[in-house]
């Protein structure tokens, strides 16, 4: 049993966030579907005045995720890209240098490159899994992004070491914790300044909403993130925030079950003669693997009955993606191959189904590949 002398754990707080706190003591906090709020009197600005700025449903979800991450507070955005945009605006120095992993999420790559093309700052992409390269890359930086495990080959970055290097160079650090989730990684304990999520993935967890969260480590950063969300109109709607809140109630259970399934599938895949390589960092619910060719990947994905070919990850249902034709289609072939992403590479987001059903689906699809 865990020590409760410090109060409820972060997972307990996420399960109970907002319960029985409103007028009728609803166990499930109501969804505040209002754009505006009535003032009681001229000159008396209420706590909530306009939903782009503040919304009670959004705030309950923000507090739940801030608790999960051990941060100060959070902003809830209409997508993970919105959360990344808020961090860039709030934290990237004007005409300074921003550093990001060479194999960061494609949308992050596009966002930072677009800002750099407009002259807002310079961007440097580097292999942050290599600490010698990271030490050189952060020199002169004002902001450093880390993402671990990487996509799609699930390579790990030493977040604490990169953060120490970045801070010594005078840079702030943002960790994208979408893949690892707060079940397996707590970036604030490793020293970072902010954490972002595509809450579309594990936090909401049911493949039914696009949502983002940026968690701040301090009141000063929270104020800046809030200002940029309000100024740019990045904030999420109340219904979407509610779906996020509903998702975090079962977040830990889902992630633990999906991860146990993923560990078992990684083991089974390693034993199959047609699987050239399996990428699994030892935790989490993502497994990537390499089949011999594009044709093998095509036959395999077409033969799957239960597991759909789809973008995204982190839902209760297992899905599979082919990075070369999907998430990494815009990456030039030479860069892709240099990063180890071959035509036969597949990325499996493992869900919470019975693992025996998942393996029998995968095995029959592997058997469909002509040898
Ligand atoms: N960060 C990571 C690691 C992602 O995988 C994604 C989306 O796939 C994003 C950010 C962007 O999130 P969204 O699609 O919710 O905008």
Biggest pleated-sheet summary? 7 strands, mixed
Order of helices and strands: HHEHEHEHEHEHEEHHHEEHEEHEH
**Count of individual beta strands:** 12
| Number of helical elements | 13
Task: Name the features.
371 residues; 14% strand; binds pyridoxal-5'-phosphate; globular
Give me a quick take on this structure.
By secondary structure, the chain is α/β, with parallel strands linked by helices. Helices cover about 40% and strands about 15% of the residues.
Please render the helix and strand layout as text.
Layout lengths: L9 H7 L39 H14 L3 E5 L2 H12 L5 E5 L4 H12 L4 E5 L4 H7 L5 E5 L11 H10 L3 E5 L4 H4 L9 E5 L13 E5 L2 H14 L5 H12 L1 H20 L6 E3 L6 E5 L3 H10 L4 E2 L9 E3 L11 H6 L6 E5 L5 H13 L4
Parallel strand pairs: 2-3, 2-4, 4-5, 5-6, 10-11
Antiparallel strand pairs: 1-7, 6-7, 8-9, 9-12, 11-12
Helix pairs in contact: 1-2, 2-9, 3-4, 3-8, 11-13
This protein binds pyridoxal-5'-phosphate (PLP).
């Amino acid at each position: 049993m865990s020590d409760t002398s410090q109060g409820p754990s972060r997972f307990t707080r996420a399960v109970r966030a907002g319960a029985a706190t409103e007028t009728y003591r609803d166990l499930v906090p109501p969804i505040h579907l209002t754009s505006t709020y009535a003032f009681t009197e001229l000159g008396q600005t209420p706590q909530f005045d306009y939903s782009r700025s503040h919304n009670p449903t959004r705030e309950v979800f923000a507090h739940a995720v801030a608790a999960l991450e051990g941060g100060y507070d959070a902003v809830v955005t209409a997508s993970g890209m919105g959360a990344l945009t808020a961090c860039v605006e709030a934290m990237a120095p004007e005409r300074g240098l921003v550093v990001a992993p060479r194999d960061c999420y494609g949308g992050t790559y596009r966002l930072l490159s677009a800002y750099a093309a407009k002259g807002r700052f310079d961007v440097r992409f580097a292999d942050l899994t290599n600490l010698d390269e990271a030490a050189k890359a952060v020199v002169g930086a004002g902001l450093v992004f880390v993402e671990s495990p990487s996509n799609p080959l699930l390579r790990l970055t030493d977040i604490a070491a990169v953060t120490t290097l970045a801070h010594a160079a005078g840079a702030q650090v943002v960790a994208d914790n979408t893949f690892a989730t707060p079940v397996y990684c707590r970036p604030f304990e490793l020293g970072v300044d902010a954490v972002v999520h595509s809450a579309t993935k594990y936090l909401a967890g049911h493949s039914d909403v696009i949502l983002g969260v940026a968690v701040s480590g301090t009141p000063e950063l929270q104020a800046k993130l809030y200002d940029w969300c309000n100024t740019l109109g990045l904030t999420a709607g109340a219904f979407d925030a509610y779906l996020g809140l509903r998702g975090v109630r079962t977040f830990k259970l889902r992630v633990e079950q999906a991860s146990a399934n993923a560990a078992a599938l990684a083991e089974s895949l390693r034993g199959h003669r047609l699987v050239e390589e399996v990428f699994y960092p030892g935790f989490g619910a993502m497994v990537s693997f390499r089949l011999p060719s594009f044709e093998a990947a095509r036959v395999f994905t077409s033969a799957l009955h239960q597991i759909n070919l789809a973008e995204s990850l982190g839902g209760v249902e297992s899905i599979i993606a082919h990075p070369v034709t999907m998430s990494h289609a815009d990456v030039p072939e030479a860069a892709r191959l240099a990063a180890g992403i071959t035509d036969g590479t597949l990325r499996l987001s493992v869900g919470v189904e019975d693992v025996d059903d998942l393996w029998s689906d995968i095995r029959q699809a592997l058997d469909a590949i002509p040898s």
